Amino acid sequence: MTKKVKWIAAAAALILLGVLAFAFKNNSEGTAGAKQITIHVKGVKHQETISIDSDCETLAELLKTHTELKAEVDNGPYGAYLITLLDETQDSQKGPWWVYESDNNEVCTAMEYCPALDKVTIKDKDEFTFSLINELE
Q1: Where are the beta strands (DSSP E) in 61-120?
Q2: Among candidates 37, 136, 56, 38, which has minimal Cα distance to 90?
Q3: Torsion angle, CA of 78/79/80/83, rounded to 10 degrees?
Q4: Element containing residue 37 per DSSP (H, E)
Q5: How far apart are CA 72 and CA 82, in angstroms?
Q6: Local mean pLDDT, 10-residue blocks, the chain (137 residues)
Q7: Which three-class secondary structure state does DSSP give residue 46?
Q8: First and final CA of the chain: distance in angstroms?
Q9: Which residues have CB under 8 Å from 69's CB, separation 6+?
Q10: Distances in Å between the alpha carbon of 29 and those of 11, 56, 100, 110, 114?
C-alpha cells in the first residue's frame, strides 16, 4: 500500500511541476517584437492617452525606454515602481502616489492586480491606466 501511495504522490508532484513550469513560462515572457501599447494617464496636470509602438518586453522597460513618457522608475524590495510620469512625481511618504491597473494584460488579470512594473510582461494591444491618487484605499 505504501508503494502505491508513493507512486501516486510522485506522479502528482511531476504533474504539478509541469503545470507550474508552463504557467511561469507563459506569464514571464512578453511578446517579442513590435507591439502597440496604450497608456492612459490620470494625473493632476495630465489627463491623456498615449499610444506607443515598442518592442519592450516588460512595463518597466517600456517606461524607462520611451522618453516621451518622462518616466522615472526605481527599484524597491518588491521590484520596480513608478516615481514620475509626464513630469508628475509621487511623494512616497504622504502622497499623491502613482498606481496602475489593466483590464487586458495577462499578468494583471491572472493575479487580479498589477504587480511591480518589472514583473508585468507586455503583449500587443495591452492597455494600462496610471492614476495619481491622494488616498490609498
Answers
A1: 72-76, 79-85, 88-89, 97-101
A2: 136
A3: 10
A4: strand 35-42
A5: 6
A6: 57 45 46 87 95 96 96 96 97 94 97 97 97 86
A7: coil
A8: 53
A9: 39, 50, 52, 63, 85, 86
A10: 28, 11, 20, 14, 15
